[in-house]
Protein: DNA 3'-5' helicase
Organism: Lactarius akahatsu
Amino acid sequence: QGIESLKYCVIITSPKHVLNDWRFLELWKLKKFVNRLRSFVFDEAHCISQWSGDFCPEYTEVGRLRWLLPGHIVFYAASVTLPSHVLSHIKSILQMRSERTREI
């Protein structure tokens, strides 16, 4: 209820809940909610690459958020350790286009 009523400006959750919990699936349909979103941050982003596949299929499918959320929402992938092959895999899963991606 607190999330839906826009009480919070930061929501911390896992890909498992974002894609499979009915409450989040309903939130993605609420215009008042998604219009206020500015960014989606994936902390420990290397886990998206390492855990995707059979171990945790939700991590493979987290890129579906691109289709559930409006285009103005920026995706951030944060991690201390992102070798180039892992970063490429994460960009693929999250459907991040190279021309719109910055590394810091």
Notes: The two ends are 35 Å apart (CA to CA). The CA atoms of residues 36 and 66 lie 16 Å apart.
